[in-house]
Amino acid sequence: MTRARFQTFDDPSHSQGASRIRALREALRAAGLDGFVVPRADEHQSEYVAPQAERLAWLTGFTGSAGTAVILHDEAALVVDGRYTLQAPAQVDTAVITPVPLAETPVSAWVGAHLKPGEVLAYDPWLHTPDSVARLGRAASKAGATLRAVEANPVDSVWTDRPGSPAGSVVVHPLAFAGEAAAEKLGRIRAALADVDIAALVISDPHNLAWAFNLRGSDVAHTPLALGYAVVPREGRAALYLTSPNLSPELRTALEPLADLHPRAAFEDGLAAQAANAARVRLDAGTAAYALKLRVEAAGGVADLGPDPITAMKAVKNPSEIAGTRAAHHRDGVAVTRFLAWLDGQGEGLTEIAAVKALEDFRAESGLLRDVSFPTISGSGANGAIVHYRVSRETNRHILPGELFLVDSGAQYEDGTTDITRTVAIGMPSEAMQDRFTRVLKGHLGIARAVFPQGTTGAQIDSFARLPLWEAGLDFDHGTGHGVGVFLSVHEGPQRIAKTGMVALEPGMILSNEPGYYKPGAYGIRLENLVLVETRTISGGERPMLGFETLTLAPFDRHLIRLDLLTPEERAWIDSYHARVCAELSPDLDVATRNWLEQATRPLTTVA
Predict the structure, then answer these.
(1) How far apart are CA 592 and CA 595, in angstroms?
(2) Residue 607's pLDDT band (cuts 50, 70, 90)
(3) Which of 105, 369, 404, 438 is most buried, by CB atoms within 10 Å?
(4) Mean pLDDT over residues 189-202, rounded?
(5) What is the mean pLDDT of residues 549-572?
(6) Is the peptide bond before 401 cis (omega within 30 degrees of 0)?
(7) CB 512 within 8 A of CB 482
(8) How far is CA 54 from CA 63, 221, 358, 421, in A?
(9) Which residues fall within 8 angstroms of residue 116, CB to CB, at 6 or more apart?
(10) 171-313 falls under which CATH superfamily?
């Protein structure tokens, strides 16, 4: 029997963008509105959303995980960040909507420049945070226009075949993997509320909901989330409002001592009751919709915008989570290494989609794969230069000799989440490819080998990954690393290695290490391992120091490494890493793959 796959290769067609935008404009005129803001968001500001929340993709054809469209009567823009500057123009009808780089023109700046005096720009208050509403409001005011919240999203009125609400199963996440009982977590949350004199916390981020109550769901693709909310008072029972009614009996039993269970439809009334009598209610500034602020204030409460304390708690993994993550990476390393060996033996005719299917199949053979952690990026040649390229039947191409092939993929196992990128040469690489690859590798090692004092932020070490590229007048337009959850989101905050990473790194945090280089129209290079922040003892040192343990296990392509660009210390690190990969994975590999791995992980001083 054929196994159902976790990813598909069909994308919304941009050919329908013109008619759909035209229908939206007609709906706006009928409502007396001059424009509407369409973010790629759901009411939780999630990266991965349920099908019914894919309004931006349905309207424009753009399938990236971040972006905002502004639809006015006579023009429209799609604002995207550096990951999508190549993808957006390829997916949307540029005769109808203009892709705009976020780095040059933020959404508010475009609104301020294009909205006319007296016009009314509408937005859905469930799809924007209070901060984003404030920025839009200032831009509209500066243009002499008005920003107005609408009760019903006008996109929904023209999306006639919009999917219904998700109803996936919601189950207990076993204590053996979670490492801490939900009751203990709620105790820590309440203590954090007491420290800042907050009456109650609204958990609006489904990732935090899953962590706090040790539950997992299936309401969105690739991340085991149950959509919904919780209200956790400083004193008294919590209230849990889940979108899906499909709760396992075990979950109901586990939650009964901790919280009252309600359907999602009861949430707004429950929030209003909690906010009454001038109570201070903490709303997460990053994920709480502006609609929640309006509801709290309408009930007489005080909307206290700030960080959800769960986010910082969740970021630091406990021993059980770390042990599970290591096991997941060993299992995943076996699958990825089998894939790389298989790839090396393929002749001409292999396509990007065939590579995606093969990699997923290798992971599935463990019997423990729950999902991919995101749609696999399988980019050959010029497609590899599209940072978040997602292969479709329309874009699928053959992987040809003389090209680079970039594959960025990950898996969801019950004990851990993985994310790995490897770039390999198909046939003989050019000298330019080897130069760029080695510079990216040096940047990767700059992070992997880093030692830094406690209190250091991701922003402070981000340049370690860029310096070898900067020295050649090169750079990349994305962060160097993001946080990663444990059987949760592959993109987790607040920790990150980026110019904007202002959170101090702490032992137990997991991050990606993924510098890259992209030559539009030619090729892309990215090298990614996941790393765990750990304490380091330095002989004679005077301050507590931190460093990284590399979790990911898979070889780098030796054919792309220029030895003359590496320092002796860098060579030693690669040889040591490769020796570890070979030693740890070989016992679980078949003879042919083991022999391939032994060759792929030979010391760099060995002639290829």
Answers:
(1) 5
(2) very low
(3) 404
(4) 97
(5) 97
(6) no
(7) yes
(8) 9, 12, 28, 27
(9) 34, 143, 144, 145
(10) Creatinase/prolidase N-terminal domain (3.40.350.10)
Number of helices (H) and strands (E) in the chain: give both, helices first.
Answer: 19, 28
Greatest alpha-carbon pair distance for the chain in Å reads 76
The predicted-structure confidence for 115-126, as pLDDT tens digits, reads as follows 999 999 999 999
Mean pLDDT for the chain overall: 95
User: How many Cβ atoms from other residues are within 10 Å of residue 392's Cβ?
Assistant: 17
Q: How confident is the model at residue 2 (pLDDT cuts 50, 70, 90)?
A: low
CATH architecture for segment(s) 14-158: 3-Layer(aba) Sandwich (3.40)
Beta bridge partners of 405: 380, 424
**608 has pLDDT over 80:** no
**At the fourth CATH level, which superfamily is domain 316-600?**
Creatinase/methionine aminopeptidase superfamily (3.90.230.10)
Is residue 379 within 8 Å of residue 404, measured between CB atoms? no
Mean pLDDT of 166-173: 94
Residue 275: HSE in the Cβ half-sphere, 13 Å Cα cutoff: 23
Supply the DSSP string of 416-453, one letter for each residue: EE--EEEEEEESSPPHHHHHHHHHHHHHHHHHHT--EE
Indicate the domain borders of the chain. 14-158, 171-313, 316-600
What pLDDT score was predicted for residue 83? 84
- For residue 238, is pLDDT > 60? yes
Reported as type and span, the H/E element at residue 280 is strand 280-284
